[in-house]
Amino acid sequence: MNAELFTSLDLLEKESGISKEYMLTKIEEALANACRKEVGATALIRVHLDPVKCDMKVFHRRLVVPDGEVVDPKCEIGLTEAKSLSRRNKLGGYVETELKTKTFRRFSAQTGKQMIIQAIRTAEREKQTKAYEEKREEIITAVVDKVDMISGNLILDTGTGYATLIKSEQIPGEVHDVGDRIKVFVSEVNSGETRGPIVSLSRVHPNFVKRLFELEIPEIQDGTIVIKGVSREAGSRTKIAVQSRDENVDAIGSCIGKNGMRINAILSELSGEKVDIIRYSDSIEEFIAEALSPAKVISVVMDAERSAKVLVSPDQLSLAIGKEGQNAKLVARLTGCKIDIKA
What we know:
- Helices cover 36% and strands 29% of the residues.
- It is of the alpha+beta class.
- It has 11 helices and 15 strands.
- The strands form 4 sheets. The chain has a 5-stranded antiparallel β-sheet with strand order 7-6-5-8-9. Strands 1, 2, 3 and 4 form a 4-stranded mixed β-sheet that branches. A 3-stranded mixed β-sheet has the order 10-11-12, with helices on both faces.
């Protein structure tokens, strides 16, 4: 049976990536805990696992103390009794008695088994957490494994494990079926003993659009073009500010691509969401005017710190403000300024 145990640990390491050394440590803890339930809570237990010889032994240890000073017989033994077991025993040393684990009661054995199962689950969680940590703030491609028809949540196979894309983190109006491959943004990773999902996924996070641009635009990947900011109303409109570090490279044109090929690849992933590519300017007035696109601005005046008065012609007012103030809100988020638009 011992040989089967060590063979199982080898298979577990090979198939799940859970190290044999980690599991040996956890099995030692589980056996020691099970022994204490048999012998006593204060008992000193030593577990010896030898993966080379496929051997497993458990010992009950007791400290040798002067006769008459034994306070807890579960972890102490008098000198006379210790000498009767072996003349080599002396004060301050330990007497070890081997325990036969096959005599454990069902309750104790079950407790040890549960500890080992929990150790495997913990190791798997830590492994998944580490894999997701490496992808934090990045886009990954996942496959829809299940659609919850009641909540609208999607269960995704991410290649690392299964994770949930909740309804509120999906782009409004989009529909996915089992087997669909979709891109998702890893927005948060829970590590340690934190309960709940290991990873939080999103398709509505502003950085989802930012990462899409970084994936599709080579000039952004090599640093020629820099994304200066993103503001987004998922499913409706996104404004993304870009700046070229090379005067010979057009930031907006590079993002659009020949015949719109680059921007169309991004839009197809956003389920019809509109994207305004804004030319960034170090002049806050020019930046605000650009950001209010597609409206044409007459003037922008900063009347206080991070507060701007914008003047447009009457026919451009509704366009500048946008439906339910959406355009003005997006510009405010993008520029970090309070926007007051007047005709």
